[in-house]
Write a structure and sequence with these properties.
Keywords: Membrane, Transmembrane, Transmembrane helix. This protein is mostly helical. The protein has one domain. It is 63% helix and 0% strand. It contains 2 helices and no strands. Helix 1 runs antiparallel to helix 2. The longest helix has 20 residues. 5% of the residues are buried.
Length: 63
Amino acid sequence: MILHYIVFGILFLGGFVLLGIAPGLPAWQGPVFVAGILAISLALAYMMREPGGATKRSRSWEN
């Protein structure tokens, strides 16, 4: 369980780092910014799919 929070933290904070450094780059600003948005989105999706959370879902990807 703690491993899930570590993965979430790395993706979430790493996404913010990517968003922060994107405007200062001389090239590749767009792809780095989009990678930051995708990393944050992936982190949130990763935590929402965890069973037994606040939503009380047993299987979040299956019916």
